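input
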Amino acid sequence: MGARRITLAVALSLGLAGSTGSAAAAGLTDPVHQWLPSDKADTWTWQWSDATYVRQPVKETYTVAKSDGPSFELGWTTGDDPTAARGTIDYQRTDAGLVNTDWSGTAPPAAMPILCATAGQCGNSLAGVHFQLIWGTRSPVLLEPLVRGTSWSTLGGAGSDVVSDNRYIGRRIVKVPAFPQGVSASGIESDVSQAGALGDPFGSGVRTVWWVYGVGPVAITFRHTGGDVTSAQLLQTSLRPQPPPPDANWFPLAAGQKAEFQWRNSKWLKKPSRQRFDVAQVVHGTARVNVKHLSGPIRVAGSYVFTERLDGLIALQGVTRSASLTKFPSLGPRRLPSAQRRHLITPYDLMSFGFNPILPAYPAAGQRWASSRTSRDFKLFGVNGNARVVGVRSVRVPAGRFRALAVVSHLRQPGFPFGSGTRTSYFAAGRGLVKLVFRHDDGSVSTVVRLK
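output
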């Protein structure tokens, strides 16, 4: 991962190792335990209106027209009359969340604003509940895992001329006709902008969508820049709410976030090394994190790339340059030339060494996963092992006292005792890594503590 004593640049590209995933993160083909289910028997009836252009409420019924694993199509109609408005909307569940792949529908009412540069052959419409849902937010419509701090930017519209900045705003009890007693829902607020269309003020504004796990969206409010308000509510559905996955964020990746660490090894690094990590850029849950030397015998600079997906928190890449007065033991695997073998020079090296994921999506006590001999990780590290989420423990470090999620990993790198041992990593909600203890098989112990 890093260098020995001379300055080196080492890049690594990591693939997902064998993982059981999270008990709360359902498989992509599960039609029930989703933010938008897709069983062929599912039905939803909505009502929507606009304060200016569609004052008489419009009722729409949605059914699952097609379903093929993670891909499905919803068909909708405003009534039984063949001349009534109707259409389809297609979705695909991915490791990054729900994506809209296609749509079709009858033309919007003539009175509504034109959402294209010209009136002819305009493929944009807000005359429909799911058209309002995907407006400016097609890929993804909903980013997962959905945890505190989740945000993303994406495009929409027939010509990708609609831009949205989206953020998770938390959970609350929402009352709609389908759930008059109230239901726990997760909110997404979107700043939507359209430029170049005749109806730009109508195509721009702030939209809030409330999602219920096991049901789908239940309420949408679009406050347009021009002053109009479009609102939609779920009237009835064949679905029942499911317990949502926990929304604690154990390793937040928000641009501008900083962390300072100190680490030492009882045998090889007795004088501590202090390093700072800055989240420099985030796109769709994938972040570049820069590392910088603060003090101590290891002078290091570089960056890491982490991504949060339904497969878990994955280390994709690490590029570091370092110069050290300390000589660390070599790591394997033996089949690689010595110049290509990884070295542990930063806290994030210690945290991500071995195999992915670092954390499962929606982690919970008792979850387990293991390395895979066919994975990219094994080719790079040659590490056999397993990991499990132990549960929440109280941890005190210079940065404070935390209730932290403990993850214990057992690692074995044949022929390399420094690359073998037991690692315990502690993650605090909203903060990320706060402590790590790696008991190497050579008898030494690496200890990482968070300073800020």
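quick obs: Residues 129-134 form the longest helix (6 residues).
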